[in-house]
Amino acid sequence: MRYTSTLLSVCICLSLTACQKSGTSTPAPTPTPTPTPPAPVKPLITLPPGWKQNTTLTSTFPSNIQAYVFDSLFEGKQTRAFCFAYESSNTTISFKPTLSATAKTPAEFLQQEPGTVYACINGGFFGSNQSYSLVRHAGTTLSPNIKLLSRPLGHYYPTRAAFGVSSTGTPSVGWVYHIGAGNDPIYRYPAPAPNDVNKSPLPAPDANFPAGGAPWDVSSAIGGSPMLVYAGQVRVTDTAELIDVNNNSARPRSAVGYTPEGIILLVAVQGDNFVPGYAGLSLPETARLMRALGCSHAVNLDGGGSTALRIGGVATVKPSATGVERAVTSVVMITRK
To answer: In this structure, are residues 256 and 121 in contact, taking their beta carbons and an 8 Å threshold?
Structure first.
């Protein structure tokens, strides 16, 4: 009986112990906090209808470096375009035109550039391995805008458009010419020499012709042609600049400009129907696109199969010639100092 009583006590004890263990609740796991989405960043420019901010391309960039994309109808034409924008007053950013002795793709320029590169766009015009457009960096002119053109009526001296920044990053544009036998000084004029390939050539530009010229105080600059926007007005001066780049045809386009607030824009437009349905823009249409983005001044760069814009190393427009980037002699890189 004592044995039975003892056994019963043990069973009751074990039963109570088991009940206590089974009733012990496991602490609830700490819920994973829901990530707070980043606060929307105000665009640096007033975005026209159809333009959207693309934060994926600039996710690792400071907030004052932005990208926008357009994929809609522009003046009734299906258009895809990309825009890179930054504040020219940002002293940690460098506008860096770069020249290569041998043509190479923008991707190759990027691979060989040390440090952080935020964006890279193709530069001015070229033939083989020779640049025909101004390339100037850190006070040194690496290549001049073309100084002489031979046409049936004689030799012409074009004052072509260029975009530059001062040592503090302040942007400016102008119609320029390299006075004398060398690459410097560079004179900037408030209007181009009124050349016309169907008329006799004009004298070579100098300090007095065209009127209003003065030495151009820029640290870095890239040449192109023609001017697209000047003093807030669409002003395509292709005739005076003696430039013919399928001016009135739809093609891929590259351009650089700035707003009255000092926001610098690099823009590339898809074209040539390499991506079906995207023929590109004419020069007047490109000028109106730049003006719509708020540019008070803008310059056309080399386009067609040369058009390329990389943001954070990522290609935006698809090259139209062969599906791969064309080798070029110059690019503009936006880098961290």
So the answer is: yes
